[in-house]
Fold:
Amino acid sequence: MYQGIEFFTATCLNWQPLLQSDSHKQIIIDSLNFLVNDKRIWLYGYVIMPNHIHVIWCKQPEWLNKNVQQHFSKFTAQHLKFSLINNNSADLENYKSTQSDREYQFWERRPHKAALYNRKVLEEKLDYIHNNPVKAGLCNLPEDYLYSSARYYILNDGNDLVKHYMEHI
Structure:
């Protein structure tokens, strides 16, 4: 019933606040929008923090054997790099890679990924990600934070990005 639903966390390199700016948060939103509109995933929840993101998603059937998370990470890293270059940001130097396979690295290697096998665990993770900005002092209430799915669930503020997990289970 809950097969394929994943909790995914990507952390910015060395916990740097790469996603502090709204334009960088928008890169994440645009990438999630692409994955939803291209029918690669169903998105059930997310939060974009200044130095990491949490996502609850499920791959759609034709993408089950493909690494959607890797595509997402690579795409967002490229666009974050372009943004830093276009804005002549000195911050780009903070992401110089020590690895020989890339010039820059924006995400920590080995992001956290966990399967969510039942409703209770899924709802715990959803509450956790929605309360993340409150605990970080970015807002007073989860629904006040714009870069999260909390408004969808708490205020029934509809959007085309997030689908209620109960619709697909």
